[in-house]
Hints:
Blueprint: H1 8-16, E1 21-25, E2 31-32, E3 47-51, E4 55-64, H2 69-73, E5 82-89, E6 94-99, E7 115-122, E8 131-137
Parallel strand pairs: 6-8
Antiparallel strand pairs: 1-2, 1-3, 4-5, 4-7, 5-6, 7-8
The structure holds zinc ion (ZN).
Zinc ion (ZN) binds near residues 25, 41 and 44.
Amino acid sequence: MEQRPFSDTSYNQFLNEEKLMGSRCKGCGATYVPPRPLCVKCYKSDLDWVEMKGTGKLAAFTCITIAPPFMIAQGYSRKNPYYSGVVELDEGGRVDARIEGMDTAHPENIKVGMPMKVKFLHREGAEVPETYLAFEPA
Ligand SMILES: [Zn+2]
């Protein structure tokens, strides 16, 4: 399998390759996304990389109207806000992600528990490849 270290750098490299990867404890089966090098349930450091299917349910969300500078450059503003959320993956583990494909003018349509699927957003014009994890309704 992959020999990359269980780090944020490896996690981001996998996102650039359109893979949502976590680590799974060989001892107790606990799954961590982003990956951890040490299992916090049984304290073993014997883990494997595991690729997530990229499906889950929306656990929480918020609508962001004050965007960071790179998002403002992409056209987001008070008049064009975006959703950010937490998705609980089918394999276990929760990830922070952008939530795409939902109309911010109609927040009544976005619901906790909605089935979601992964979407990889590649940053345009970046000097080094950079990918944002996003989810959209499944
Ligand atoms: Zn464990």
